[in-house]
Amino acid sequence: MNTCRKSIIVMALLGLTATSGAQPTTGPSPAPSSADKPDAKPRPGASTTTKPPEKPPAVEPEAISALEKMGAFLRDQQSFTVRTTTQTDQVLESGQKIRLSANADIRVRRPDRLRADVISDRKQRQFFYDGKTLTLNGQRVGYYAIVPAPPTLGELAEAIEDRYGLELPLVDLFYWGTDKANLAQIETAIYVGPSKIGGVDTDQYAFRQPGLDWQLWIQRGDRPLPRKLVLTTTDDPARPEHAIEMAWDLAVEHPASLFTFVPPKGSHRIELVEIPQRSATPTKAQRQPTR
Amino acid sequence: MHRTLLHRPMLLALALVAVAGPLHDADARPVYSGARTSVNRNVNVNRNVDRNVSRNVDVHRDIDVDVDRGYYRGGYPVARAAATTAAVAATAAAVGSIVYSLPPNCATMMSGGVAYQRCGNAYYQPRYSGTQVTYVVVNAP
Q: Is the complex ipTM higher than 0.85?
């Protein structure tokens, strides 16, 4: 963990020295060609040595700094709504990819309120979080589950993922701008160029990390919001993708009732299964099945 | 198939085995999978470390293809490609096994405050595995 922190600090410092303000450079920042690949590994301090100038650093400081600015801005938003449109690839056993769509409305009031409504091609789910419990509700299927939850949003995402294998929609939202953001994983980071997303001017960045290539479009100007995110899973031969577009409403007044779950008539409470924890001594369930 | 009397903790243990078992086997082959959905998570937690357990988690977490009962008709049943145990016929379901979908003509019933699905002579207890509803085959409550 210490080394992770250090490299984040190094990246941050590079970002500060290399850029003056949020404006990305206008010059082209070509992606490393395949011939450059051996050099495309993170080399702390590489940009400070007097290497040939035609090779951009694998991790462009401005890309990291843009990510950090976005994180800081997100962290400062106390009450907001984000509406997402998502496309996700699923891979069949044959290797064939199937792309499915979903929409999610995510309402947040920091530090301890969340409501998310997800409608996918196949199912509807609602999340209610009030600082004490998390409710997962399937309106159409008529089942809901309520589990105890940590007191802040910052802890919620990680806790329910570890315990229940449950991922909040657009979960990165709750990691960016915190010390849980995984910046140390980033191996290459480049500024791609300007792009318009949903009529909004953005800057496009591309990142690589183990098992994952991802691209991020960040709104220009004084509201550096993520507008689009594309993830390519690179450790799966089918390279499935997950793409999210986001529309934002900031400084929204959310009524308290929004975060309170009232069981619909005819619905039933069921269990939310805990995933087997990786403990030193395997539990009965983790041993070889006897069938 | 003979029925055995099982206490609840025992049943749960069996149920977990039923989830981990088949997926563990399937992990050796090119398997049904989904795109990663988070930049900041599920690298260290769910993919690389302890693959057998995590694969299982991954499947439940990332799959968005499961079908709410009675919601999705026609088309290719994508979810069944992932289901390691399908409820083909009520009589074939072994107690403790987990299915992603129910046979037709089931009715909700309550027993001891717990919801069950009764499908012919078979009983299923619905649960959430991540956001996916799965059904454990249980003895008559």
A: no
